[in-house]
Amino acid sequence: MTRTYAVIGDPIDHSLSPALFNSAFLFLGLDCAYIAYRIPKGELAFGIDSLRKIGISGFNVTIPHKVEMMRYLNEVDTECKLVGATNTVVNNNGILKGYNTDVAGFMDPIKNRNIKSTGSDVLLLGAGGAARAIIVAFSKENVKKITIANRTKQTADELVRFAHSLGMDSDYSDLENAGRIAGNYKFVINATSIGLKGSGCPISTDKINKDSVIYDIVYMPVETPLIQQSKNQGATIIYGWEMLLAQAMKGFEIWFNRPAPYEAMKLTLLGRF
């Protein structure tokens, strides 16, 4: 019997998950299918009910449901609880367990390059859902300090308090000032949507240098303005597609309890760009 998996969200037609997972199933000869299922905001309860009825084996959760989905879970893993959002769900005979693979998915590309983050200073641009997962990831690595730079101070202050609650030193900066102080930080992480489809750069890159590690979680385009400009300054670059791939692989491993086929998924992903 074919096992079915899905990604839920709205909009969903641009999701790369069906291509990623279906290529993994094909490569490993698994009798599974993965679909994109649009659930508009406000219709999540009905959507989850439909997924339960068709006996879905598991599903991924994307915007705008990652936080609200927590209400419909029977069990959650530690990361899920800490971040307050889920992106991967297992359906075990109607019992829904939520996981958050953004935390490990974010750290993997850093670890794969053998870049040490313990004791480092981090400049985090943006204060949305992804930023929370990034703070959790860095708290596990015992970074020294994390500065949150965001357009609205109020939202950033919430994250500063969240970082404090995890035992981290944290403060706020506006985006204009962030460009001026960027050279003081080992890591500069873009968790805003600025750069999506090439739409500008979140901060000035003048102060970025060869000691900077620039990590842009925007993956469309592969080379965002922030990445292009930082490359010219000699910085170490980590691409958004690496996080996307790492968190998808973690999801695969949660569902199937076996390693995901990295090369097959990577080729599929980069082929889409």
Describe the structure.
The chain is of the alpha/beta class and about 270 residues long. It has 2 domains: about 130 residues, Leucine Dehydrogenase, chain A, domain 1 (Rossmann fold, 3-Layer(aba) Sandwich); about 140 residues, NAD(P)-binding Rossmann-like Domain (Rossmann fold), CATH 3.40.50. The strands form 2 sheets. A 6-stranded mixed sheet has the order 2-1-3-5-6-4. A hairpin with a 2-residue loop joins strand 5 and strand 6.
Task: Please give the share of residues in helix.
Answer: 25-40%
Give the number of helices: 10
Shape: globular
Counted up, domains total 2
**At the third CATH level, what is the topology name of the largest domain?**
Rossmann fold
Task: Let me know the CATH homologous superfamily of the largest domain.
Answer: NAD(P)-binding Rossmann-like Domain
Q: Give the strand order, joined by hyphens, for the main sheet.
A: 2-1-3-5-6-4
Please write the string of helix (H) and strand (E) elements: EHEHEEHEEHEHEHEHEEHEHH
